[in-house]
Automatic annotation (TrEMBL):
Annotated TM spans: none
Protein name: SGNH/GDSL hydrolase family protein
Keywords annotated in UniProt: Hydrolase
Tree of life domain: Bacteria
Taxonomic lineage: Bacteria, Pseudomonadati, Pseudomonadota, Gammaproteobacteria, Cellvibrionales
Gene3D superfamilies noted in UniProt: SGNH hydrolase
GO molecular-function term, one example from the UniProt record: hydrolase activity
Annotated ranges, domain SGNH hydrolase-type esterase: 26-196
Species, as recorded: Microbulbifer echini
InterPro entries associated with the record: SGNH_hydro, SGNH_hydro_sf
Length: 217
């Protein structure tokens, strides 16, 4: 059994744009990913750790427990051995409560990479591969989350390139979700169901062609 951890926020949690409802596992991209890899003949378990409002290293002034750095080492320890950790974070770093730009949030992701690699796993357990996924650029945020993301469209500019730079510096895998899917027109931040389907398949194809499972051959 090959184990993949998705460490992310509400985009991967599967919030239905314009609501507080959640897509079922089979329809959100981590579930699509698991199905695709299993249909490819692999025995894969995709473990979700996705929290609404999660930032990389910053606190949410209104809700506790939203810093991705808090408890990440224990999450890795809890689910090890892991073949790969998928990091898709940064969107909430650009909320109106923070004056962050792309480079700053990318450094937050870099911190997460270091925590994963230094996690206190049991002796002999492998350090997992890490795939950094650049989240979708925020476009015209609106609806019930519009006020939270005022100005985020400008603040997040250049984020995929900054994440690519971090990936190269730290020797991780990298995939830019913006090349394949787009945010929902209903809120400008999250994914519609058909985009979850596309993203799960894209990530599955990417992982099959990557070094993630080489050590199991």
């Amino acid at each position: 059994m090959e184990n993949i951890l998705v460490y992310s926020d509400s985009v991967s949690w599967g919030i239905i744009p314009g609501t507080r409802k959640r897509l079922p596992f089979s329809q959100r991209w981590p579930g699509v990913l698991e199905s695709c890899l299993n249909r490819d003949g692999r025995k894969v378990r995709v473990i979700e750790n996705c929290l609404n409002g999660r930032r990389t290293v910053w606190e949410d002034p209104f809700r506790a427990g939203r810093r991705a750095v808090d408890g990440l080492a224990q999450v890795i320890e809890m689910h090890s051995p892991l073949d790969c950790v998928l990091l898709m974070l940064g969107t909430n770093d650009f909320q109106d409560t923070h004056d962050n730009r792309a480079w700053m949030s990318a450094q937050g992701v870099a911190k997460l990479v270091s925590i994963i690699r230094e996690a206190p796993t049991e002796p002999g357990m492998p350090v997992p591969q890490i795939l950094i996924i650049a989240p979708l650029a925020i476009v015209d945020p609106k609806g019930m989350i519009g006020n939270k993301f005022t100005g985020a469209e400008q603040r997040c500019r250049g984020f995929p390139q900054e994440l690519d730079n971090v990936s190269r510096d730290l020797n991780t895998l990298f995939l830019d979700a913006n090349a394949w899917v787009k945010v929902s027109e209903r809120d400008g931040v999250h994914l519609d169901e058909d985009q979850h389907e596309i993203l799960g398949k894209v990530i599955g194809d990417f992982l099959v062609k990557s070094p993630v499972f080489d050590r199991k051959k």
